[in-house]
Amino acid sequence: MPRPQSRPRSGLTVLILCFLTIVADGYDMVVYGAALPKILHEPGWNLTPGTAGLIGTWTLGGLMVGFVTAGPLTDRIGRRKLMLVGVVWISAGSLLSALAMNVEVFGLARFLTGVGIGSVVPSAVALTMEYAPRNRRLLYNGVMLTGFSVGGVLASLAAIWLLPHHDWRVLFGLGIVFVLLMPIMYFRLPESVDYLDARGRETEARALAEAYGRDYDAIAASAASNRMESASSPQGVRRLLARPWLLPLIVFVVISVCVNVVVYGLNTWAPALMHEQGYALGSALTFMLVLQAGGAIGSVAGSYLADRVGCARVVMVLFVVGAASLLALSNKLDTGWLMLAILGAGIGGTGTNSVLYGYVASNFPVANRGSAVGVVMGLGRIGALVGPAMAGWILDAGLGARWSFYSFAIPAIVGAVLVTLVPVITASRRTEEEPALTTA
């Protein structure tokens, strides 16, 4: 009598675990901005807005280091192990931030936490898309990346409830809770089938593929084809630096820089800027909550639409929504319009960044797609360094919150313009190389 086959495991398990990892990322990134109004008045630290902005860039500098080292590390230890280590690392960094007794230690703690965050995000994206249904990969990825906004919502709620009565350190101390994810991930998060196959662990790879209902023979054949292509032509970053891929790569890097200026600048400074405009601390933190809600809406809705009408149109609309909202925020608005503008800034900021992953991937050949995404997102974090520091410099110069919002709106406008150029640039090289999957 034939043995009944067990039901394949669902990729939703992978989605949920990667989502929770990104929640930790979002919480840690947003908690600094939520706590900043109180950190600026920490006794003995003598922080200026400019110095506070630089501390924000230290976290993002660590994130860039994490992004750059994530690729080589995943090749050596695998995506699953790197995520396990990363979750523990992020929690330890949060605890060190909470215990820091001077600016130097606090800045170091923020940098180290950024390294942990940067190391887990690429693996979370790769595993989610690998185990997602083939026709829902962008949607799964978009839903997973809403974890950033959910983490930001949690940070904002914690600040609203705790900051009026407690020290800012308690917000960072709460970050250690994410270490509880590690044992769950240890037992439930699978390794990449592609990684196992590349390491020659065929038995494990085949068993895992069958458990999740994937065609291992097709995966192995695709991997073998990519290895043959790699042996006959330049691959990875070397190929991207040659014609006809260099110009699209540069354009996408600049687009990524633009969106990161908006996302990380706002997440660092939104409460302080709203406080600067005369709103009470509690109201300013509520605005942060709405900003994160907008990011979640933009990520899910944008990814859903990108699967249907293409990434280019969606990214363009999201950039325009973000720019218009930021220009509106530079003025004093009634409560209803103010909330709508903040929601739009979140949709056009974090939402754009989520869809951009798929947009970049769809414009490069399969063999070089990982390298393209890594280069664009890694170099794009230059914007994450510039955004927080730029707003701090503007406030130090006495130009006020209005010019800070202008400084975020301008990159959004530039990004929208550059998106219109991508189809023109990619059309000129389609006869030379592999066609893009979806560009419009």
UniProtKB/TrEMBL annotation:
The keyword Transmembrane applies. It is a multi-pass membrane protein. It is found in: Cell membrane. SUPFAM superfamilies: MFS general substrate transporter. Residues 14-427 form the Major facilitator superfamily (MFS) profile domain. Keywords: Membrane, Transmembrane, Transmembrane helix. It comes from the Bacteria. Gene3D superfamilies: MFS general substrate transporter like domains (1.20.1250.20). Signal peptide: none annotated. Pfam families: MFS_1. The chain crosses the membrane at residues 50-70, 82-101, 107-127, 139-162, 168-189, 245-266, 278-298, 310-330, 336-360, 372-391, 403-425. This is Aromatic acid/H+ symport family MFS transporter. The lineage of its organism: Bacteria, Bacillati, Actinomycetota, Actinomycetes, Mycobacteriales.
